Amino acid sequence: MLLVTEYHPLGSLKAIMDKAPLSGKQIFLIASTTLKGLVYLHARHQVHRDLKPGNILIAGGLDNPCARIAGTPLNIQFIELNVFMQILAHHESFRIIPP
């Protein structure tokens, strides 16, 4: 079994905040999409217990950021190794990042 997660080239909210301050619009969009994620988790009776800027990944671009809450069972997908190898064979854009 392999652990496969979505790739976020911008990284975490912490990494972005360490580089430069966010605009009001960026803060609003990140906060609102983070809250939507928490509502989704809580509706499924799950609690994150470690929500922090390092566990919030940013999808999209900085002009229209969308938060993804990392470290939850809902953003992790387990697949068989042979299925993963078939996916890699057909998609050159996959990046493998060692732990």
What would a concise description of this structure say?
The protein has helices at 13-19, 24-43, 81-90, and strands at 2-4, 56-59, 66-69, 77-79. With 99 residues, the protein is of the alpha+beta class.
Which terms summarize this structure?
alpha+beta; single chain; two-stranded antiparallel ribbon; 4 strands; 3 helices; Transferase(Phosphotransferase), domain 1; 99 residues; two-stranded antiparallel sheet
Task: Give a written overview of the molecule.
The protein is α+β, with helices and mostly antiparallel strands. It has a single domain (2-90), classed as Transferase(Phosphotransferase) domain 1 (Transferase(Phosphotransferase), domain 1, Orthogonal Bundle). The chain has helices spanning 13-19, 24-43, 81-90, and strands at residues 2-4, 56-59, 66-69, 77-79.
Low-confidence stretches: none
> What radius of gyration results from the CA coordinates?
15 Å
Number of helices: 3
The ordered H/E elements are: EHHEEEH
Distance between the termini: 15 Å
Topology:
Blueprint: E1 2-4, H1 13-19, H2 24-43, E2 56-59, E3 66-69, E4 77-79, H3 81-90
